[in-house]
Automatic annotation (TrEMBL):
The active site is at 182 (proton acceptor). Gene3D superfamilies: Phosphoenolpyruvate-binding domains. It is found in: Cytoplasm. It comes from the Bacteria. InterPro entries: Pantoate_hydroxy_MeTrfase, Pyrv/PenolPyrv_kinase-like_dom, Pyrv_kinase-like_dom_sf. This is 3-methyl-2-oxobutanoate hydroxymethyltransferase. It comes from Veillonella absiana.
Amino acid sequence: MKNTIVTLQDQKRRGEKITMITAYDYSMAKLLDQTGVNCLLVGDSLGMVMLGYEDTVSVTMEDMIHHGAAVAKGTRDALVVVDMPFLSYHISVEEAVRNAGRLMREAHAQAVKLEGGSSVLNQVRAIVNSGIPVMGHLGLTPQSVHAFGGFKVQGNTVEQAEQILADANALEEAGAFALVLECVPRGLAKRITDEIAIPTIGIGAGVDTDGQVLVYQDALGMFEGFQPKFVKRFGDIGTQIKNGIMDYCDAVKANEFPTIEHSFKGSQELERLY
């Protein structure tokens, strides 16, 4: 079944959890789409996990279009949501609409996601009024990491919590079809989820949101070292990849690959030339 913004909202009404996972390229999108996941997010996290950038602030529109188009080509059933990168929607409403349109036309996104609350309401309204579905993002918004002083839980004070709650309601009123809540206390995420009619998708926001999202490299154990508190590893693909490639290298060095079954044989007439 094809997932759309309408089917996601129906899932919230039925109390059926929404699943979202990141994707950044054609082959992985094709594989993930076969799992039945509801949404594939082409996140600006690609800058860190695919391109080696230190943060998401360095990601460009060209990066998002390139990877978004690859994911869209590999996806049939999941809803493809593409992040609007840093400064692609901040300068003016007109530029925000133009860049959202580029992601729809050139990256073949089916929805866009942008970070922020009261400061981006005019952009959200204008993009939605242009016929482009918008997913909001509140809490720890990685594009503002330097303003936050690092990757920190947001909404830990009454003032912060009240602002996030107000922003959630305002984004719904502005026309957002769903909302990502990142690194906020579970109780705050639950209140927002109960208070607004649009789906909430959590990452480090507890179990009470309408759905969950993870970066697939985190979920599948593709990186060693630091692991955020909110990440659970559902596989150890990184180890499997390393072991598989080491086995390949060993087989090549031992002259055990390729074997006859992996080789082509010419005609008898051609064989006489060898």
